[in-house]
Amino acid sequence: MRTLAIVLLALATAGTAAAQRRARIGPTVSSISIEDGSGGSQSFTSFGGSLAFLSGDDGEIGVGVSRYGDLSSSTCTRKMTFVGLESNYYPIGAKGVAPFASSAVGLARVLDQDPALALLGCNTGAQTSNELGLGFGLGVRVSLGNQASALVEGRFFQVPNSAIKALEGRANVSFAFGSPNKKTQLLNGTLGPAIGVLTPLSGPLAGRGPTVGVRFRRDQKKGGSLGLQIDYAPLRVRTGCSAGCDPYAILFAPGYEPSLHPAWGRLYAELGLLLAGFPAIGADRGVAQGAHGGLGADIFSGRTLMMNVNARVLWMQRNDPNNRNAFVVQVGASLSPRLEHQASH
Known about the structure:
Elements: H1 2-11, E1 21-35, E2 41-54, E3 59-68, E4 78-89, E5 97-112, E6 129-143, E7 148-158, E8 165-180, E9 190-202, E10 205-207, E11 211-219, E12 225-237, E13 248-257, E14 259-260, E15 265-278, E16 286-301, E17 305-317, E18 325-337, H2 340-343
Antiparallel strand pairs: 1-2, 1-8, 2-3, 3-4, 4-5, 5-6, 6-7, 7-8, 9-11, 9-18, 10-12, 11-12, 12-13, 13-15, 14-15, 15-16, 16-17, 17-18
C-alpha cells in the first residue's frame, strides 16, 4: 500500500505541458510484494521493458515484458516471465504530469516448486506452465522534455492457479519518438480524492471501515461521461469464515455515466464492470470480478470546484465456491475541479 499512497500524493500535483510524442520505448524495474505461508510478506525485484503508443491524449496501449528471476522466500525455486498487453487511461490527458489508471493482461510462464510445501521438500519435478496474468492500478507519467518520459505505477498483480497474488510498484524511463499525438473527442477530465462507506446488501461481505481512493471523470463532446474510481476497501467476512476474516481489497470500477445538466451541476446514472483485488491469504485471495451501478450528483462549489455524492451497488463473484456472490452498497463523496464543459457554463 505504500506505493499506492505515494502515487495518490503525486496525483495531487498533476498539471499540463506540451503535446506528447506518439510512442515510447524503455526499461522497467519493479518491486513486487508476495505473502508467504506464515502470513508475512517478501519483496522481490524484476526487470523488463515496454513499448507503447498513444491512441490520443486520453489513452495508451503497448506491450510489456518483465522477468521475475526469484520470487521465493525459501530454497525452492519460483520464477516467472510475464509478457502482457498494457493499457493506460489518462483522464486529464497525457501531457505534463499526467495521472493514469493502468490495466494489463497477458501470458505468464511460471516455474514454481511450491515453497508452501517446503516441509515436505521442494517439488524438483515441477515444470514451467503457461498461465494468464493480469494487473490493474494507478500511476503518474512525467514528461522529460520532448524526447523522454518517466512513469511510476502501483498495481495489484495476479497469476491465477499460482501463489503470485501481490502488490507491485513499477518505474519506467522511456525514449519518446514519433509525431505529436492528435487530440481526441474527449474534453479535459478531472480527478479528486474520494471516501465512502460500505453496507452489506446480500452475501457475506461487509465494510469494517471507510473506503478511500481517487475518482476520475471525463466528459465526451457528445453523450455522457466516462468514469473510473479506485478504492482501498477494508472488508469483513460475516459468515462461513474461520480464518482470514478481515481482508482488504483494491476496487477498480470503470463506468459509463449518461448525464443531465441542471444549472447547479450534474445528475447521472452509472453502470460498469468491477474488479476487486484481494492480496492477503484467505478464501478471497486473488481477483474477484463483477459489476457496479448506481446514481450520483455533481454539485458546483464556486467557479472551479464541484462536490460529488453517489450511491451504488457493488456485485462481486468471490473466489469461495461455497458463498460466491456478494452484494454491497457503497455511499460516497468526493471533491474535484469541475468538468470542462460544466466550467464553461
